[in-house]
Amino acid sequence: MDIGTLKKLRAIVPGTLIMLGALPMYTYVTDEPLSSIQALDWLLAGAAAVVAYVLGAIYNVYCLRAMFNRNSHARITANIKHRLLAMGRTMPLTDARREELLRGNDLMDVFYALIDSRESLKERAKLVRDNGLVWSSIADVVVLGVVFASLYIPLWLIVDYAPFKIWGFASGALTLLAGFLFHPQAERRHIQLSNEQLNFIATQMKGEVETKVNAL
Q: What per-residue string of b and e applies to 113-124 under the rule 16 or more CB within 10 Å gives b?
């Protein structure tokens, strides 16, 4: 998967989830049963895709996914930074400078530069982006699941509308599954794929990584 496709899908996925999550509210306001909606045709329509993209773009502006993924992303990048520093730094390094490098983005810039310098690593990067989409989409399920569960369960208690109950508890169940089972697995897979890239760098690009890391 290329970066452009990844960016588009990271808008379309949450946008589609928002549209699905809004179905009970739509049926409640319009007084139409869920069975009357041709959900599949509606979601696959070109106009729906555009709406999903716009909704997802707005969702991304507010960084809701990033809030949930913050710690996970920090663990993934920390693994890369520590390994790059261990394999590439041969010159003396003060503790203060070491901490500065681990906190900043210089080591990640080196990592991306190394990835872009070899075709084999570029191919491996596609697998990382594929998993990155899974990782971020699961985070979207968690974030939006919390939103819809928090919205629909109280509304069901107030108006006793069955679709609110179904969507509310289903959203809560998906949130728990995605947050505690699927998201940690996607994170572990991301670290595994990063380590495969780093193993290649350590064995095939030792001189290059030492030159770049020592220059920091």
A: ebbeebeebeeb
